[in-house]
């Protein structure tokens, strides 16, 4: 039986097959149906059920028993002797793995499977019985024989595997070398000292453009040197001799000068070999084409030079410190100009930087760097420095950031310090200007407000003081609550109708919170326009800026003035009436009394006009019609009046009214209104001249045939021909045609009065 | 001083500035009646300045204060420098006359010959 197994153990190349067969054999031989091989694991901490018979699935190949605990497996491996437990229920020495108990094992025996020479044991061979059993010496002897056969088979198979691995490894190494050579990166060489010849593989030959076969046999060094850049040749000779003499490893970069001027860089590494007596034997080494990384190095250097060029010429101070901010690696020249201190002083002692700061600001110096080291991506700090060179105060804005490697580790802390003195001063001035403006807005004796489409957005504190509203209450249309109820609708309409061209001027009463009195105010506002649009139109209205002014006193004064004016007019007209009355009584029999009376009446009418009209002006047509009404009753068919709408200033109304009075008086007594065929036309127009504008009035009568007219002499004629030119600078012409009177009056008028309204 | 002797102003050249035609005519007649020689009348400040400028020998002036909206003060300054006696003919009360001119003699319209003699005669 053992002989059959021994044959299998020598023949089979499957360890699992051998182990399983061994379990089957021992189980059969000892009359039990449970057997297993436990393999010691490489870490030595536990054993694996490597093979077995009679076990349920999940045990073989999976179940492990720890050697750390007090198990019979550990005991067997440690002692190297068979370990037997005839009745595990009565066993006090060991604990047993759960799967043994679950399979109903009552008695068990272990023998060691030894390892190869100098190796730890392979593991254990175990047989279990479901009944209590006292295993005999024969049993254990048999088991040990089996275990030895297993050990031999395992050793044999282990050797085969090692051999196979070695073969695979060898093949793999060769493949790698071939790949490396094919990609043209590595060439191998050997410098044979005795022959003074340099040998190399085909790639090494290819680097130098030499015949591969000649290189394989070996060529003098000079053949290779001819291929190098002339500047590198001497160096190679010297270093090689030196390296050989001292039997050291040597590393050298040389340039290959290729046809067409191309340069390629080779990194040559070699190791000197010596004979047993210390004499130099050879140098064996590799040559690698490192042109690509050389180009990258060059680019990096150029990039650094560009940075330096930028940094050296920048008007800002650029600084780079180590990762912990302890000292500066770089500081640009602008530092000296900006801080008035030499660069070297700060480069050698970073604390010197802090000493430059204004005493109140020292804490902010280098704090940006500290914040970056604390984890911020970038940090900005402002501080003032007092320059040692001239004592000038400068404002500095210092921005720091971290320079990190690809893995995010901080390599440096760097930053830019800018002189922002001009900006800081401008800001200070702006702040001062804003403060002054705010002081003005908040103290002028009127309310200042801002408004948008939805009413007020802001109002100055005076409004709150006056009305008792909070800022929130006054927003949007809330301020209307302080407006007199009777005025609210009008105010709202006026605000909503405000347009950018017309602005707003609206009077209303506002309640004063302190005494509950409503006082008259006037609101005005102007639009704040956005940028003009390309079509030349003005920009959109962004918002409205407005003021509300107390005009209550003004209103009262205006009212008083109205009363006074009305009183004055009343008295003037009353006085004229009294004068007329006195004259009538005094001169009842005198010629001319009636003319005097009607002239005073005309003056009275003018006074009446002027008192009724606002702005001290009278419409010319109204003036003419008033005189017409005063002189003519009924039949107006013979009269035609025509001219533009025109208001006459008060200064010319009275003289003109008196002139019209004279003309009408004459027409009623002797002219157009006397004769059945008589006609009167009064036309007026504005004549625009180069120097000034004139009102030209044309009076023309027809169908009048009368020889003698009073107008030919006396007051009326003097008025028209002398008084009007004298006091109005008027040009007048009074003619008496056979058909009737023709009179033209051209009166200068100020430009603003000449616009027909 | 009260002087009612009409001969005091005889031959004296008196500037008349008055924008109201008929009042100016009355003043002119008044001066002629008392033997004085009226210069003017003119209705505007500019005309009055021109006339005064080209009339070297002036003995006095009767000036309306408001000339079609313009105040007569520049002319007053000019005449004062020349030492010419001035009478303001105005309906304005003291309140409206600026302080530099408050001491000028005034006579209310309608102007009377007695007032003129009192202020212009010497």
Give a description of the structure:
The complex is a heterodimer of chains A (757) and B (122). With 757 residues, chain A is α+β, with helices and mostly antiparallel strands. Helices cover 42% and strands 27% of the residues of chain A. In chain A, a hairpin with a 5-residue loop joins strand 15 (393-404) and strand 16 (410-419). Chain A is elongated. The termini of chain A are far apart. Residues 176-181 of chain A have low confidence and may be disordered. Chain B has one domain (6-120): Rossmann fold, CATH 3.40.50.2300. Chain B has helices spanning 21-33, 45-53, 73-81, 113-120, and strands at 13-17, 37-42, 60-64, 66-67, 70-71, 85-89, 106-107. In chain B, the strands form two sheets. A five-stranded parallel β-sheet of chain B has the order 2-1-3-6-7, sandwiched between helices. In chain B, strands 4-5 form a two-stranded antiparallel sheet. The longest helix of chain B has 13 residues, at 21-33. The chains are: A alpha+beta (757), B alpha/beta (122). Chains A and B meet through helix 23 of A and helix 1 of B.
Structural class of chain A: alpha+beta
The total count of helices of chain A amounts to 24
Which spans of chain A of ≥5 residues are poorly predicted at pLDDT below 50? 176-181
Largest sheet of chain B: 5 strands, parallel
Radius of gyration of chain B: 13 Å
Q: State mean pLDDT of chain B (0 to 100 scale).
A: 82
Task: Classify the beta-strand content of chain B into a percent band.
Answer: 15-25%
Fraction of residues of chain A in helices? Answer: 40-55%
Count of discrete domains of chain A: 5
Name given to the CATH homologous superfamily of the largest domain in chain A: GAF domain
Strand order of the largest sheet of chain A: 3-2-1-6-5-4
